[in-house]
Amino acid sequence: MGKSIFGGIGARLSWAIIFIWFGANLLSQALYLGFNGEPYDANQILMSLGAWYWVCIVLELIIWLTFGSLIVQKFRIDVAEKRFVDSA
After folding, report:
1. Cα–Cα distance between 35 and 16 in angstroms, integer?
2. Mean pLDDT of all residues in 58-82
3. Residue 51 gets which letter from DSSP?
4. Shortest CA distance to 14 belongs to which of 77, 75, 69, 80?
5. What is the pLDDT of residue 47?
6. How far apart (Å, rounded) are the C-alpha atoms in residues 47 and 60?
7. Contact predicate 41/49, CB 8 Å
8. What is the tally of structural domains in the chain?
């Protein structure tokens, strides 16, 4: 039972991180577009970071992998519940 509680907290926290990350990206792009009339070039910004570029790339990859694993987990749970309901 303890594992499911921590798993639920971890999943909720992961979703919160993904939504915050997505919202921050969307908001920053919208603000930049509103002030400058054109979208910013993310590659140019990342390249200007120098060595920190790789840190940002790794963090972004971790977020995308977390998002993918949450989606796969959600589908697994839905399929398992459907099988349980069908067999009952």
Report:
1. 28
2. 83
3. T
4. 69
5. 80
6. 15
7. no
8. 1
